[in-house]
Amino acid sequence: MSSPEQVLDVLRAELRATGITYKGLAERIGVSESSVKRMFGQKDMALSRLAQICQATGIAMEDVLRRAADARPQADALTLPQETSLVANPRLLLMAICCLGHWSLEGVIETYRLTEAECITLLAELDRLGLIELKPLNRYSLRVSNAFRWLPDGPVQRFFREHVVADYFAGGFNRPGDALMCLPARLSGASAQELGQKIEQLAGELARLHRNDRRLPPDERDGYTLLLGFRSWEFSAFTALRRG
Questions:
Q1: What is the pTM of this model?
Q2: What positions does the domain HTH cro/C1-type occupy (predicted)?
Q3: Residue 238 in this model has a pLDDT that exceeds 60
Q4: Number of other residues whose CB lies within 10 A of the CB of residue 206
Q5: What's the CA gap between 54 and 62, in Å, rounded?
Q6: Contact 211, 203 (CB under 8 A)
Q7: CA angle 133-138-141, nearest 5°?
Q8: 31: burial class by Cβ within 10 Å (0-12, 13-18, 19+)?
Q9: Closest CA to 9 of 67, 75, 73, 74
Q10: Backbone phi and psi for residue 144, each to the nearest 5 degrees, phi listed first
């Protein structure tokens, strides 16, 4: 749910966009300008008053509420208990990853051996955990931001290392767009930090492309995974050859 402050912020922005001042709004709803200022200054507003203002100004109340909901603060990560719950149930983790990929319920059912009832149960659990907000007709919106990351060395990352990494690198990396590189380098701390920032930028670019391509039909998109690792490291077999 969006907060009253967010609803008022959106309503204020809508009024500015339509060129309606506090004075003009006061004339439309039959109160003084000071009363209007007080309404917005109190950071809260009765639903009946919101409906009155929207009707008097031609602003759709549904749009105000939707935009306020979309603007609510979103988490960049889950908590340790939330991630622990996900890895305890592989089907729940699968549904979580599908939701992060903005899959529809129908798409999940068509692709995986999950019934509609199972999917709805999993969506309800993800809503309880705070990853999504479940809406009518089994639609949902994410409660996490575009900068979402799994916890460093958290339950999901450990699950991926144990069960996913070997399967991922077992592929041929020979399809158009695939890439596999292992590039050693000796860097200063400052250079390593600079490269880390560029990796963050790359992750942001991936998120941007992902959002843009959501407009395309499902049959024009394919599943891609960017798996990045960058740390100070030496292969243990090479370390064993070091001079004492």
A1: 0.65
A2: 10-64
A3: yes
A4: 14
A5: 10
A6: no
A7: 30
A8: middle
A9: 67
A10: -115, 160
CB distance 177 to 222 below 8 Å: no
Selection from 115, 110, 119 nearest residue 139 by Cα: 119
Q: Are 95 and 126 in contact (CB under 8 A)?
A: yes
- Interatomic CA distance for residues 43 and 47, integer angstroms: 13
Q: How far is CA 239 from the centre of its chain?
A: 40
Q: Please give the Cα distance from 32 to 35 (Å, whole number).
A: 5
Tokens coding 51: 């409906």
CA dihedral 13, 18, 24, 25 (to 10 degrees): -50
- What tokens does 221 get? 């998109």
Closest to 26 (Cα-Cα) out of 39, 14, 17, 13: 39
Let me know how long the chain is. 244
* E strands present in the chain: 132-135, 139-142
